[in-house]
Specification:
mainly alpha, 2 domains, two-stranded antiparallel sheet, two-stranded antiparallel ribbon, 6% strand, elongated
């Protein structure tokens, strides 16, 4: 005959059933990660399609999708800098040449497209692999490429080539946003 004594509570569960968050020990919770079972509070919980998970389990799951090599970050940086070094003086010259109003229209229409084209060039140069930090290295490469092109054109033409315009700023912001978003996934 079996006895009907209650079983002992789990090691991290007090007798009253209240748990404390593994990351915030002062926060009471009744929620657990549905993958590892760790007690988590609402600050630590991420809602997924299958329930709440802790950030560590989500990061572990996302690591499956990232297959880039460590050299891919530097390849992305170099390609972004090289393409920007060559293309930026041409783009800035044409934006200045088009005038104020028409330059804004062209910058608004072409900025995102140019960023998307650059992101595809970068993605193809790294073998279509995905990395967690490729987008940051690419953005840094674009900025370094712009600075190098400003230095080169200043030395060649003894003037600050038409980089400082509102149209160019709009173009760059849209291109950087596009590169960031496309390389995010």
């Amino acid at each position: 005959m079996t006895s009907s004594t209650p079983s002992a509570p789990a090691s991290d569960e007090p007798v009253g059933g209240v748990l404390y968050c593994a990351n915030h020990p002062e926060t009471e919770t009744y929620l657990r990660c549905n993958k590892c079972g760790k007690p988590i509070c609402l600050k630590c919980a991420e809602l997924t399609e299958v329930g709440y998970r802790c950030k560590e389990c989500i990061r572990e799951q996302q690591n499956v999708f990232y297959n880039a090599l460590t050299t891919d970050n530097w390849i992305a940086f170099g390609v972004a800098a090289l393409v920007t070094l060559v293309a930026w003086p041409i783009v800035a010259f044409f934006l200045r040449f088009l005038g104020f109003f028409f330059g804004f229209i062209v910058a608004a229409l072409a900025g995102g497209s140019a960023g998307a084209a650059l992101a595809q060039i970068i993605r193809n140069s790294v073998g279509r692999r995905r990395g967690r930090y490729i987008r940051y290295f690419s953005l840094a490469g674009v900025i370094v490429g712009m600075l190098l092109s400003a230095i080169v054109t200043t030395l060649m033409f003894d003037m600050f080539f038409p980089f400082a315009s509102w149209q160019a700023l709009l173009f760059v912001v849209l291109a950087l946003a596009s590169v960031y978003q496309i390389l995010k996934w």
